[in-house]
Write a structure and sequence with these properties.
By secondary structure, the protein is α/β, with parallel strands linked by helices. It has a single domain (4-326), classed as Alpha-Beta Barrel (TIM Barrel), CATH 3.20.20.80. It is built from 14 helices and ten strands. The chain has helices spanning 4-10, 28-34, 51-54, 64-75, 93-96, 102-117, 126-129, 155-160, 163-175, 193-207, 230-238, 259-277, 297-300, 318-326, and strands at 15-20, 42-45, 79-86, 137-142, 180-185, 214-217, 220-222, 243-254, 282-287, 304-305. An eight-stranded parallel barrel has the order 1-2-3-4-5-6-8-9, surrounded by six helices. Helix 6 runs parallel beside helix 9 (163-175). Bound molecules: (3S,4R)-3-hydroxy-2-oxopiperidin-4-yl beta-D-xylopyranoside. (3S,4R)-3-hydroxy-2-oxopiperidin-4-yl beta-D-xylopyranoside is lined by residues 46-47, 142, 218, 248, 296.
């Protein structure tokens, strides 16, 4: 069978990648697939680089778990996507309940991003930073917008308004000048109030000379639900002069699995990949884990699942043919 990263790279993309978690790596059938660079050329840590894992108490940084994911990527010569610096979820309580004043919280954000992105932390493969085509990327800001295009309430927004975004991006750039800095969000696949707000946010950052290199489009989709304006939206984003990446692709269905749902899922994967393929500035695609055995979907969406390209027995689903056909 054709392998996904090989197909993506042959089509001119930088990588095809996957998110993963440490626990999964001890599953030998799973490990055999993720360690195959022709299948996956890029890895995202699904959890262990988040704030609760990396700064559980103020100023106490714990990089061990993130290092394990970075070491896996390094061993396999896979790119690494950092995920993430600033998000309203998976925060330690010292951040959410800290009642910090604005200058203090601003300095906490800056310190956190600097520590995460300083290149020797997580043993990010240094040699990759010296290759112009293979820079590591970071989701510096995750999910800062609401579906209606307003800014999301969070401890950061409530205390700092939107200034935390520039603070985080500037700290990230200073800590790792080579990394591609992204804002990442969901429900920005198609055109609408949220993607318009993303365009406006990027424009305003650019006008203020705040470093911003890319927009991450999560793409947690429901079978049959790929927005028809996906391609136009990718063009609208890249017209800003930033790159885009599909960062968390999965296509869930209401269980039980049927042949018809798998066939539609195959078409949906193909539609997403071919939109990225059609836009030069769409650099690569990452699935939010590749096997239904370890997908986050059943835990997050009641009654839904089977969202990944491999099933729970590590058997390739029709979705894989859709991905290959899309490139
Ligand atoms: C998810 C993880 O996959 C789960 O294991 C965890 O319990 C919750 O977070 N958007 C994101 C990711 O940016 O960080 C989320 O990951 C999925 C939605």
């Amino acid at each position: 069978a054709a392998q996904l990263n090989r197909v993506a790279q042959a089509a001119g993309k930088l990588y095809f990648g996957t998110a993963t978690n440490i626990e999964e790596l001890s599953d030998s059938a799973y490990a055999a697939i993720i360690n195959n660079r022709t299948e996956f050329g890029q890895i995202t840590a699904a959890n262990v680089m988040k704030w609760d894992s990396t700064e559980p108490s103020r100023g106490v940084f714990t990089f061990g778990a993130g290092d394990q994911i970075a070491a896996l990527a390094k061993k396999n010569n896979q790119l690494l996507r950092g995920h993430n610096c600033v998000w309203h979820q998976q925060l330690p309580s010292w951040v959410t309940a800290g009642h910090f004043d604005a200058p203090t919280l601003s300095s906490i954000v800056s310190t956190h991003c600097s520590a995460l992105m300083y290149v020797s932390k997580f043993q990010i493969p240094l040699e990759l930073n010296f290759h112009p085509q293979t820079k590591d990327s970071w989701d510096v800001i995750n999910e800062c917008l609401n579906d209606d295009g307003t800014f999301r309430q969070s401890v950061f927004f409530d205390t700092l308004n939107t200034s935390f975004i520039a603070t985080a991006l500037r700290a990230a750039r200073a800590a790792d000048p080579q990394a591609k800095l992204y804002i990442n969000d969901f429900n920005i696949e198609g055109q609408g109030p949220k993607s318009t707000a993303m365009v406006n946010l990027v424009k305003s950052l650019q006008a203020q000379k705040v470093p911003i290199d890319g927009i991450g489009i999560q793409a947690h989709l429901l079978v049959g639900g790929v927005p028809p304006t996906l391609l136009a939206n990718l063009k609208q984003f890249t017209a800003l002069g930033v790159e885009v990446a599909i960062t968390e692709l999965d296509v869930r269905m209401t269980l039980p699995v049927t042949a018809a749902l798998l066939a539609q899922q195959r078409r949906d994967y193909q539609t997403v990949i071919s939109a990225c393929q059609a836009v030069k500035g769409c650099i690569g695609v990452t699935v939010w884990d590749f096997s239904d055995k370890f997908s986050w979907v059943p835990g997050a969406f009641t009654g839904q699942g089977a969202a990944c390209p491999w099933d729970e027995n590590m058997v390739r689903k029709p979705a894989i043919d859709g991905i290959i056909a899309g490139f």
